[in-house]
Amino acid sequence: MNYKQPLELNGLLLQLDLFLRGNLPPFWASLIEGLLILIAVLAAYAVIALILIYAERKVTAFFQARLGPNRVGKYGSIQSIADMIKILIKEIIHINRVDRFLFYAAPFFVICASVMAFGAIPFGQGLQAVDFNIGIVYVLAVSSLGIIGVLLAGWSSNNKYSMIGAMRSGAQFISYELSAAFALMTIVVMTGTMQLSEIVENQRYAWNIFNGHIPAIVAFVIYLISGHAETNRGPFDLPEAEGELTAGYHTEYSGMQFGFYYLAEYLNMFIIAAVATTVFLGGWMPIQIKGMDTFNQIMWYIPSYVWFIVKTAILVFVSLWVRWSFPRLRIDLLLNLEWKYLLPINLVNILIMVLTVLAGWTLTDLFPNLFGNG
Question: Which residues of 68-107 are buried (b: 16+ CB within 10 A; e: fewer)?
């Protein structure tokens, strides 16, 4: 059944596409559309980063019984913008004896990897810059490029502390990338597709976390842990352990060069939450109950991008909650958690999911009249 969706952006985007293609040659229409998409992605990237920085300060203050930002703007709401302006005009300090080319190139690897992963996220119905048929592999591949920027930063800085921080980050990132990938592959086994739009569509009546029950829940928890570790956030912020490594791999960076690392950290947190929302929690799909058309119509009155933002915001809050609730781990305990526990559990969990799918024990197989898309 087709439901009314008055607040969706599909119609507006279609009208823009028809206008451009009706008044311009195909090449120029495609070029302008590509530029508009790029501008929209970069603008969303910057705005979400500013919002996350403000949100973390407020959430942190709440957990620590403080006020947080409360001077610049109402409730300190313009504090992040003021900090952005400040970091843009900060002087970039030139360090002696660095590998100049690699030192200046490193931040761009981090920010480019983050932006490319960000562009693949389906923010709402039709709101996706790229939709590859191997979307899961694409996100894993481009997000993995960020570690190159971290390793180059440590290597080129001519600073032993930076180098140690980069090595720690490399070991941590590569280790937990395995568990994150296997957790996502568990859902790929269940859905039979890697295309993010299809994964969302398959969750119309049953989110994957419920459809795959125990194996899917285990994969979801492992992905959140692995994603949190990949973003180098507490209690997994070993590369930036200020008590022993000052600021870690970006110690020698200043001004906007440091800003790139700072920005990418927050956006990577958002990307992890967004991918978890897309793969496990139905993405932009509203809550739907098969056969209850009135209820479903009411749910569709809420725009798909609102559903996506709310689900992602909840997972971001969980990430902040974890960061400010647990002390930092030792590096050996951190790697033991991955190699001795999470990875073996992940491998067994994929096998259980394969058996679950082959035996027809998913909710869509057991109760097709309630949860099937047909």
Answer: bbeeeeeebeebbeebbeebeeeeeeebeebeeebbeebb
CA distance 131 to 20: 22
Query: Is the peptide bond between 215 and the residue preceding it cis, with omega within 30 degrees of 0?
Result: no
Q: At what angle do helices 160-191 and 343-359 cross, to 10 degrees?
A: 10
SS3 237: coil
232 torsion bin: left (phi>0), alpha (psi -120 to 50), beta (else):
left
Tell me the three state secondary structure of residue 198: helix
Instruction: Tell how far CA 366 is from the center of its chain.
Output: 32
Amino acid sitting at position 147: I
Domain definitions of the chain by residue range: 7-89, 98-371
| Percent of the chain topping pLDDT 90 | 39
CA distance 177 to 342: 11
Contacts 24+ apart (CB under 8 A), 365-371: 369/290, 370/205, 370/290, 371/205, 371/206, 371/211, 371/290
pLDDT by residue (tens digit) across 314-371? Answer: 999 999 999 888 888 788 888 899 999 999 999 999 999 999 999 989 988 888 888 8
Each residue's pLDDT tens digit, 288-311: 988 888 898 999 999 999 999 999
Alpha-helical (H) ranges within the chain are 10-23, 26-63, 79-89, 100-119, 135-144, 146-156, 160-191, 196-201, 208-211, 213-230, 242-245, 255-280, 293-301, 304-323, 331-336, 343-359, 363-366, 368-371
